[in-house]
Amino acid sequence: MVAGTLKKDVITFWGLVFYAIMVISPAGPFAFTGASAMDYAGKTAPLTFLIGGLTLFLAVIAVYVYSGRISSAGGYYKFVEATFNNKYFSKSVGFYYLFVVLSSIIGSSILLGWFTWIGLETMIGYSLPFTYVIAISFVTPVIYLIVGYLSLNYSQKIAVTVGLIDLAFYLALSIAIIVKSPYNGIQYFNIMNSNDGLHGFFLGMIVGGFVAFSGYGSIVVLAEEAKMPSKSIKKAIITSLIIMISYDTFVIYANVAGAGPHLPAALEFFAPGLFVTKSYYGMDVTLAAFFVFLVSALISTVIFGNSAARDLFSLARDGILPPVFAKVHDRYGSPYIAVITVFVIAIIGIGFGLIPLVHYYGENYGMYYLLVINALVGSTFTLVYHIIINESLPFFMFKLKQLKPLIHIVGPTIASGIIGIAMYYSLTGLSYPLSLVYAIIPLLVILSLVIIYVMRNRSIRMDTFTTVKQ
Question: How many domains does the chain have?
């Protein structure tokens, strides 16, 4: 295997679909994904996921068009590069994506330990020793190191297996809750039943339903390893979104219809879906749902880590980072040095993040703040690069002389407006220590530009994709 060349035809169409599904997280709506929407929109939370998911297709237009023409491990930043051919602009987007996945790995690893700790204490009154909580937080990057080092085919098999189990389990549980609930009805799909009218509904849609599905784009960096990438990537994005929008809407409906007038109490519980499960089926079933969630959350993060390694690999292959990161394993075809690097950064991020926050804010709040800070950083960069991709598309299609204003300008721009609102509400009014993101995000942007500037005199690869099929 030549350094810098990933194995071809490793991941299939359904492998891509379930990779995206696992990154979106099938267990999420039963535990925490729907909580934000329920906070703002109340009982109309299912409708926020339905409309938010459908609105997301406006944001998918750009990714769909680009992925049908550009197949690169660089993913999003290669889309920008093909449009503007500016190394500072395009490579910065590559770093933004790297920041997204790294913050997700760090935050989700903390979530696994924190959620296990809080869950056991809340449900059965067992207080897990904090050293065990910390140990659990380091489990995710360790498993990622093993899985990521191996062929992508292993990740594909894991994603399909765990994804099917998650979907089947939580769909069955949701049906069981709906069957027993005396609170079923169409009132959950009436916008005017929102906690705060239209304002509450649309806010719930933006911070809940719209953001929940952002993991769909995790597969664009797998294009070099996918079978027939120009067709499979874009079709897998659409397929995974259709599945997850339908699934999440149904599961969130089961949560709110199961809770009925007790929804405020469910929101005070550490996971609304588990509150409802406990109400109807007791502790044994609730613990089973809790365990499935933990496994799903672990695998979701492990799978997503592959995307960071591909992005890091591509930046190194382009000459922005040391070439050692672009080495590919002879047997497994994985960018193994990039995988190891992502693992090391995750371990450092977890350790050095926990030490000061736990010291100053205690074990519970320290872990919680680190989790939320990483979530804010990751979601902000996710929204930023989506806006960049959306607004780059018209220039790309104009260059190809195929510009269609309604499809390539109006649709993506509406999506960018919604994304901008989501970013505003995510970052407004944060108090310390969450307000640290006001410094962290600009510093990371500056860091990416500094790295590109330092490497400016090296031979930097720029792909304009002028030979793509038009």
Answer: 1
